[in-house]
Amino acid sequence: MIITLDPDSSTPFYEQLRNQIVLGIATGQLEPGEKLPTVRQLAEELSMNPMTVNKAYALMKQEGFIAIDRRHGAKVKPQLKASQERKELPPRLEQELQLLIAEASIHGMDREGFQEACGRIFARMAGGIDQDTDSTEHQTDG
């Protein structure tokens, strides 16, 4: 997986790193149980302070995306996909989604357009997790 950070972004490096690793997990570029580079290795590869990588890893551990063991390092949680088969969003994700919906609404997007865009993105990101995603776009439930 190739990680690229944008120095001109207003998003801090640790968040950019976290976001790219989470996207890698969601798209299958990083498999459950896969070992991640050590903090030192990744910091050297990205020419950044090891504390920045450590902060990203700590955040992902707290969020339940990775497990960290002193002897074996950081790994993508093996049971991640199965444990995420819930229907309700964690509170943090619900807050972020509310903000995205508000911004989309301000830019003139209606509910149907937002749902279609989400369906397309989900299908692209989640791959084979939910094959019914596209079929919901064409249903007409009054």
Automatic annotation (TrEMBL):
A GO MF term: DNA-binding transcription factor activity
Keyword annotations from UniProtKB, A to Z: DNA-binding, Transcription, Transcription regulation
HTH gntR-type domain: residues covered: 11-79
Top-level taxon: Bacteria
UniProt keyword Secreted present: no
Gene3D superfamilies noted in UniProt: Winged helix-like DNA-binding domain superfamily/Winged helix DNA-binding domain (1.10.10.10)
Pfam families named among the record's database cross-references: GntR
Annotated protein name in UniProt: GntR family transcriptional regulator
Source taxonomy: Bacteria, Bacillati, Bacillota, Bacilli, Bacillales
